[in-house]
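User: Let's play a game. I give you a shape written as tokens, and you guess the letters that built it. Ready? Here's round one.
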């Protein structure tokens, strides 16, 4: 890494790392360099700019070098190397057992907060395929009267989700249950909202995805079958039976899938009002369908 005569200040490290990451085809090269260096130093990212002339040494520099190698040569996502990411302005622990929460999924949380009862009125919601618990925890933090059931087929994912719930003081209001989709829920339960960011990437598209996604994130959280809609079909077909009259099924969907999801809802003949919310690029992303009242 070092060039003869060069002093490895914070500024120099970031400049070199950005070029190195860019040469490896890594998107967001500068951001990843900043995140990893801040983590290695035990600083906040903003601290890097206040101390551009600082010269790291010892264990911090060794940790940074190890993370840079893993990021560039093995394409391990920066958030896994850090063990943490931010979602809905909250810090969340992440590991290779869980999908890294994306900004688009924050829109699903926003929609959940719109459809759930507000104020001190009790609400009950389910988060199916909870992964890191980001959706369930964010909803619980912003709806202090709400209770949630968060499910996942992976025991390792549920352990991460529980830790995140405890970190944010909402573990007592979230019940974690292991199992596949609706099979994890207690029979007879009815929810004000069922929420899910299900796997929706078509299998062939996943094989062509960036190595950070294809080789490191849990395949079960991504692979939606031949057309990306295998799990979505299951959720649409069975969702109404788990909703209170007028309750909402709120799903994140892939690019170009919203119309197909709405068609599935119409064919189920169990839903009335629908809404589609675009993401930050204008792509229809969050599909909400309301269970019929009668």
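Assistant: Ready! My guess for every position:
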């Amino acid at each position: 890494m070092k060039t003869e005569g060069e002093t490895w200040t914070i500024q120099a490290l970031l400049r070199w790392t950005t070029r190195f990451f860019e040469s490896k085809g890594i998107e967001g090269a500068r951001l990843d360099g900043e995140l990893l260096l801040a983590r290695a130093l035990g600083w906040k990212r903003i601290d890097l700019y206040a101390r551009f002339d600082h010269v790291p040494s010892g264990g911090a520099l060794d940790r940074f070098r190890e993370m840079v190698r893993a990021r560039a040569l093995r394409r391990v996502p920066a958030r896994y190397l850090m063990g943490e990411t931010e979602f809905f302005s909250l810090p969340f622990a992440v590991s290779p057992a869980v999908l890294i929460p994306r900004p688009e999924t924050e829109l699903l949380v926003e929609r959940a907060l719109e459809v759930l009862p507000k104020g001190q009125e009790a609400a009950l919601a389910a988060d199916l395929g909870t992964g890191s618990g980001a959706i369930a925890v964010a909803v619980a933090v912003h709806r202090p009267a709400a209770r949630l059931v968060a499910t996942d087929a992976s025991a390792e994912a549920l352990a991460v989700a529980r830790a995140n719930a405890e970190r944010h003081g909402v573990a007592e209001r979230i019940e974690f249950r292991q199992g596949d989709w609706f099979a994890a829920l207690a029979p007879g339960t009815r929810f004000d909202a069922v929420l899910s960011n299900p796997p929706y990437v078509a299998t062939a598209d996943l094989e062509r995805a960036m190595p950070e996604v294809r080789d490191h994130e849990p395949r079960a959280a991504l692979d939606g079958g031949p057309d990306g809609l295998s799990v979505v079909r299951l959720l649409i077909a069975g969702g109404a039976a788990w909703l209170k009259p007028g309750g909402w099924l709120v799903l994140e969907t892939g690019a170009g899938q919203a119309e197909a999801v709405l068609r599935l809802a119409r064919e189920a003949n169990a839903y009335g009002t629908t809404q589609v919310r675009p993401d930050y690029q204008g792509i229809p992303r969050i599909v909400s369908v309301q269970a019929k009242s009668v």
